[in-house]
Design goal:
Blueprint: E1 5-12, E2 17-18, E3 29-34, E4 37-43, E5 49-50, E6 58-60, E7 66-68, E8 77-85, E9 88-99, E10 106-112, E11 115-121, E12 129-134, E13 137-141, E14 145-149, E15 158-165, E16 168-175
InterPro entries: CD2/SLAM_rcpt, Ig-like_dom_sf, Ig-like_fold
Protein name: LFA3 protein
Keywords: Glycoprotein, Membrane, Signal
């Protein structure tokens, strides 16, 4: 019998979410439960059966992976995957948290020495990826702060900060003239 373990996972409202099940082979019998209620099951070679509220908004794969489409706040909870076949059996527990998507980032600017420093802030509770673009300069900087020597600033340009998390991308833009 495989050991039982629990993993905290999270998804974003409106996105599709797949539980990170790492079973490489096809499994004969699969049962998924949420807060002890069955939500999906597959018995042998029969097609999967889905229960409320996952009918029409989930997909169960032969290796036990369960995907929920268009995640809702009410999908948060404790999930259990029970699986069995002649070579393998076990139980994997997940605690799914469903978060609101990140809001647009806020950009502020300041002068530090000979540089204009732009800072991109996100109120999202998890780490996000930051990408900066300067008007026609598609060079991307993967940091929260972006520093430009004041002598190189073209006041007609704009800076855009993109934040990404999972499948969600938000951006904000600032005109450099506002900062000088």
């Amino acid at each position: 019998v495989a050991p039982i373990y629990s993993e905290d996972v999270f998804g974003i409202v409106g996105e599709n979410f797949t539980f990170p099940v790492e079973i490489k082979q096809t499994i004969a019998d699969i049962t998924w439960k949420k807060n002890k209620d069955k939500v999906a099951e597959r018995d042998g070679k029969n097609p999967p059966i889905y229960f409320t509220p996952f009918q029409g908004r989930s997909m169960l794969k032969e290796n036990g992976n369960l995907t929920i489409f268009n995640l809702e706040k009410s999908d948060a909870g404790a999930y259990e995957l029970h699986y069995w076949d002649p070579a393998n059996e076990g139980c994997i527990n997940f605690i799914l948290a469903v978060l609101d998507p990140p809001s647009e980032p806020k950009i502020n600017c300041s002068i530090k020495g000979d540089n204009l420093v732009l800072n991109c802030a996100s109120d999202f509770p998890r780490p996000v990826t930051y990408i900066w673009e300067l008007s026609d300069d598609q060079r991307s900087l993967w940091t929260q702060e972006f520093s430009i020597p004041i002598k190189n600033i073209d006041a007609t340009k704009k800076a855009t900060c993109f934040i990404t998390f999972s499948q969600t991308k938000k951006s904000s833009e600032i005109s450099l003239i506002q900062c000088i």
